[in-house]
Amino acid sequence: MGLLDIELRYFEEHRQEWFQSDPHRFALIDGTTLYGFYDTWRDAYEAGIIKIGLGSFLIKQVLLVDEVLLMANL
Per the domain annotation, does 69 fall within a domain? Predict the structure, then answer.
């Protein structure tokens, strides 16, 4: 199992529900615990440091479909 697999699975299980209640906000997740939704990635990150500490945690924007960014290595 990879880093944040549990958090990513938990996010996917709740994506539709959360999009109804908190679309486009940023979810802060550690394990299967949702620590809240935040208006910006930075707000979620700062809350994560305070609530969870310096370990790993997931911050993911609540969208129906994830945006894909393509970058070419020139």
Answer: no
pTM comes to: 0.89
Tens digits of per-residue pLDDT, 21-36? 999 999 999 999 999 9
User: Is there a domain that residue 13 lies in?
Assistant: yes
Could you report the per-residue pLDDT of 50-74, keeping only the tens digit for each?
A: 999 999 999 999 999 998 887 777 6
Expressed as residue numbers, the domain containing 35 is 5-61
Number of domains in the chain: 1
Q: Are 22 and 61 in contact (CB under 8 A)?
A: no
Q: What b/e readout covers 39-50, taking b as 16+ CB neighbours within 10 angstroms?
A: eeeebbeebbee
In a domain, 72, yes or no: no
